[in-house]
Amino acid sequence: MKGLFGQITGSELKFVTQETSLPEVLDSHDVRIHVKACGLSPVDVTFLEEMGLQRDAIPVGREVAGIVQRVGPKVTFFQPDDEVVGILPLDSVCSGLSDVIDINEQYLVSKPEKLSCTSVAGALEDGLRAYSALHTHARMAAGQTLLVVDGASSFGLMCIQLASYHGVKVLTTSHSEEQHAFLEQLRPRVGVQEPLVVRVIPVYKNPSELLPAIMEETGGLGVDIVVDQGVSLQEKEQPETDKADEGEEEATFLPHKHDIIGMLAVGGHWVTSQQDMQLDPPDSRLMFLKSASVSFLNPQVWLASSSQQGRYLHILRDIMEKMSSGVLRPQPEEAVPLQEAAATMEDVQLQHKKKAVVEIS
Predict the structure, then answer these.
(1) CA dist 82 to 67, 257, 310, Å?
(2) DSSP H or E run through 23
(3) Rounded CA gap, 131 and 159, in Å?
(4) Residue 354 is inside which H or E element, if any?
(5) From residue 141, how far is each of 53, 151, 164, 168, 258 by CA, in Å?
(6) Helix (H, G, I), strand (E, B) or coil at 317
(7) Quick one: which of 200, 209, 164, 197 has its CA closest to 181?
(8) What is the pLDDT of residue 1?
(9) Ramachandran angles phi, psi of 155, nearest 5°
């Protein structure tokens, strides 16, 4: 049996296929799964190293969906032939891009029959991030106003749908004409009583218009919650479109930290994915005057400690329930065959493709 692993060569992370094997006897609470689909997300090598989980070969692919083949003697939640979905723990030695894997039953939930393995595997981590951002960190409530940066991304769309379901007024940004056209479809239309988005701000035209647009939309009060996907820490000049590559253009559209602080309402919550965020004394003073807060979004921590295991499983079950009922409708990801997994993972790691799903026959 083969699996995909990452190997650090110099300063680069290379993805290679290696032979793997599973023990004949399952541990007491382990479940052996035939993997049908696996979602691919970037590997945070620095985080694994800081957690003491760095290896010569890093298993790749952790968001899995499949069918139970065998169960350990003390497994109580699942039986053979059950359809399950889950995220492999950080210390797992199994690659999700394998035909068969072993995983503790405490990391799995049942997959609704009406959902495909591909759609579930592609949406699981983004759903977890959205729940963490909006429920755990921001503690959103009906009637609040939310800005989702880059709402057309898979994570942004999850945030929009989840917030709208809970009665939150949603604003978002678009980073291209295609994204803008897609997000405009979520705005109020005739016959639609509850739009998902009340305004789409095209920052690809003029990033400096974000703050004025937010203050105009909120009557100068600001937004209660901001969820970003990275921020600009220093002022940058916008590159010429025909000369800038995709990564440079995307970085240009990131909101500046000063703009985010300026658009926060009194008592506002800023949930950031920027790992190296630094607030200068004037920034902290303005946050203090507004009694606002900033928190860092790292969904991996759910798998770094067993103290929150019950809440983590509750979130996964609720994601499955809302996907099954149509509340959460992630953008469908075109599944790639297992043979193309290594090349696809390289694109994901370099952020050329932010999300991918591999179908394992």
Answers:
(1) 6, 46, 21
(2) none
(3) 8
(4) none
(5) 37, 20, 10, 7, 25
(6) helix
(7) 200
(8) 78
(9) -70, -45
pLDDT reading at 241 higher than 50: no
Q: How many CB atoms lie within 10 A of CB 237?
A: 6
User: For 34, what's the count of Cα atoms within 13 Å in the CB-facing half-sphere?
Assistant: 9
Strands 108-110 and 169-174: unpaired
**Exposure of 255 in the CB half-sphere (CA atoms within 13 A):** 30
- The continuous run of DSSP H or E covering 19 comes out as strand 12-19
Task: Tell me the C-alpha distance between 75 and 29, whole Å.
Answer: 5
Supply the pTM of this predicted model.
Answer: 0.90
Which tens digits make up the pLDDT trace of 326-347? 999 988 778 899 999 999 999 9
Q: pLDDT (tens digit, 9 = 90+) per residue, 96-113?
A: 999 999 999 999 999 999
262-314, pLDDT tens digit by residue? 999 999 999 999 988 889 999 999 999 999 999 999 988 887 777 778 889 99
Can you tell me the distance from the alpha carbon of 113 to that of 116, in angstroms, rounded to the nearest whole number? 8
Q: What is the pLDDT of residue 189?
A: 56
Q: Is 187 exposed, middle or buried (0-12, 13-18, 19+ CB in 10 A)?
A: middle
